Fold this sequence. Notes:
Chain A is mainly α. Chain A has a single domain (96-336), classed as Orthogonal Bundle (MetI-like fold). Chain A is built from 14 helices and no strands. By secondary structure, chain B is α+β, with helices and mostly antiparallel strands. Chain B folds into two domains: 47-174 and 331-405, D-Maltodextrin-Binding Protein, domain 2 (3-Layer(aba) Sandwich); 178-328 and 415-453, D-Maltodextrin-Binding Protein, domain 2 (3-Layer(aba) Sandwich), CATH 3.40.190.10. Chain B is built from 20 helices and twelve strands. Chain B has helices at 2-25, 67-84, 101-110, 122-130, 137-140, 150-155, 183-188, 200-214, 231-235, 254-269, 284-288, 299-308, 310-315, 345-355, 358-365, 377-380, 383-386, 393-405, 417-431, 437-453, and strands spanning 35-36, 39-40, 57-64, 88-95, 117-120, 158-159, 165-166, 169-174, 178-182, 316-320, 334-338, 373-374. In chain B, strand 3, helix 2 (67-84) and strand 4 (88-95) form a beta-alpha-beta unit. In chain B, helix 8 runs parallel beside helix 10 (254-269), helix 10 crosses helix 20 (437-453) and helix 12 (299-308) runs antiparallel to helix 18 (393-405). In chain B, 46% of the residues are buried. Classes of the chains: A mainly alpha, B alpha+beta. Chains A and B meet through helix 2 of A and helix 1, helix 3, helix 4 and helix 19 of B.
Amino acid sequence: MVTDTAKPVSVPGTEQPVPGTAPSRIGRFGRALLPGPAPGANGAALYRRWWLPWLWTAPAIVCAAVFGVFPFLNTLLLSFTDAKPLGGAASFVGWSNYTRMLEDSDFWLATRNSLLYALIVVPLMVLLPLLLAILVEKNLPGIGFFRSAFYTPVLASSVVVGLSWQWLLADEGLINTSLEKAHLIKDAIPFLSDSWLILFSAMGLTLWKGLGWYMIFYLAALGNVPKELHEAAAMDGAGAVRRFWHITVPGVRQAMMLVGTLTGIGSLRVFTEIYMLGSATGGPGGADRTLPFYIRDVGLDPLTGNAGYGSAVSVALFLLTLGLTLLAQRLTKEDES
Amino acid sequence: MRARRLTGSLACLVVLTLTAAGCGLSGGSDDGDATAGGCTVDKGNVGSGKLTGDVKGKITFQTTNLKKDFGDFFNGVIKDFEKAHPGASVKWIDDPGDATFTQRNVADAQGCTLPDVINLNAETATALTKNGYLLNLGVKDPSSGKPFVPAFWKSSTMKDPKGASVHTVFPWYTGGVLLTYNTDLLKKAGIDPDKPPTTMFGLFADYEKIAKSAKGKYYATMANPIWRIPADWDQMDIRTLSADGKTATFAEDPRTTEWVAWMAKLYKEGAMPKDSLSSSNDPSTPYSQGQVAYGSTNPSFVRFVKQNSPSVYAKTGVGQQPFDKLGHTTGAPQYIGVSATSKNAPTALSFAKFLTNAENQTAWCKDPSVVIFPTTTTSLDDPFFQNATGDDAFAQSRKLVAEQLKTATAYQTVISPAVQKAIVSQVQLAMQGKKSPEQAVKDAQEKANELLKQGG
């Protein structure tokens, strides 16, 4: 091993600032605080202590354990009990919560709604923000206004957005009144009283609120697509659509995967939109309830909720989310290979 | 290698789960101490025998969102109590009463730290009594019910952990219930505003008249049945639940199906806005805008209209709530409970009685900034409530409620939100014509029973 013996070697605890080196790199206890050029053999040994990585990652690990792992394990545990908020000690009930779940028509209805939500929202949320990003990518005069306008719904509170949509979609709301005035419809479209229309309206709300957010993702990704490729393809006679599919889409593929995964998880967890448009019952007859809505109904009532059953449904939602995410990854990998 | 790592991870998961199982499911103390709701408490707080002890020491008193408007009143009550009992001190906590109010109370109960004296609604009081967290006032101080209107006190009972009816709360104040309506819209439909109906179906018949005359320009009321279940059924003396509260019985009364059939008919005929079927909006705003004929059934609502919509207030009339088969109204009061886990239960009980006595109830209910009514006999006999003057709707509403409270009871059916939603959902389907009323009522009862069986 060749070492540069001409350079001063620092010994832990005895270091003195060396002229020409940055004093801020040496800590109060004489230890290197920042990675820098060749801290010397002993400094390197310090970095190799087995516990050092654990020390640096401990805060994150503790947070993850307290706010992620423990609640998850607790939910898993509760799903095998008859736990209630005020019922005293819970008892193990085996698989009965899961058996009940499989026989529960309301659970299957909520699962159908959640899956439908994901199947419709995810492809649209992957594609539409990309098109929006392409539209606002060019540095044209006043483009900042459009970028801000598309991003504004992201900043608005979900409740405010939900109320605005209620006003828009009401029987005497802006949309129905406009269509009636234009003699396009005779009777109001029942956006807020038909269970299918409530569900589709809620999807529209999710899309409208999320477009700006994912547009930002795509703007960053589009910056990494070499302009020369577009220029070369254009010179070879490729049109805009062809360049989009053969240059832009492969260039932002990683971002699309990320957006797909995030919106997939988000779609399965949708609650506020349904609550705002379908009210506390989740639409007439509870027909628009999604899985999180159903979990709230059966398990989270602070006085009488069935925490055991609610936990079982939560575990089912977790498995569904995990399964779909893994499936998406597998499909993407196969596609790449 | 991969398989080994997976096995290791799974093993860790199982160990952690079992560890958590050990933590979460250990329960119950077997050392013979007195317990209430799983908390170790002073022996005098539970079991038979009157509560004895000196009125001294610190207690906490929790209200719900009252400090902002009534801070001076409650500070005065606390000061008077502390003056009368020099060894006692009261710490006042005012919960904001937001969406997590119940969760906080449940967490306090589970942690054995419920406030000593606590303002409760019927749902929370029922749940806390069912799990043994409140002092049995009927046993610990049998004469404590004397100041209250007899019907109110008699009906202010909840089921204890064994299913027995016990007095664990004092009825504190009530808002009353009455009909509020736009007299112009009623007259257009040929309804005499001075002769309000005396039955629920009579009221529905008036709704139908309004639907026919309005032709979609305005409505009688809002559609969501969540505002009416189980209050309407209580008024009609339909038994929503069995006496022990463990099964649903409403489907056994043919009037329930008739009620649902009326709702479906009214919805179809346009007595209610179609988009209000599952909306959380109550009639307050559309009434103030002249879009619905009947407003909220709360006397405070009359004041709301007076302040926010003077032109509609000028047309507003009030009428007695249809007594129907029940023969009187249900007051649905706010309650005051004493925690069974209190370390100074004699002081807490003494303060609860002081707070709800006739003098303090009368003083508070006379406050011009509230429209509430007292629950003690002496307070209701006060000329302020008996001799309400004036012809305006606000004065009339005070008079009507004071009159109804002489015979009112506190009893109201308390069902969990899950059970309520299960019933409401089926009624909504019937209103949309997706189910017959008979089928909807049958299915609603089945769903309610499933939930009740699970402890809902």
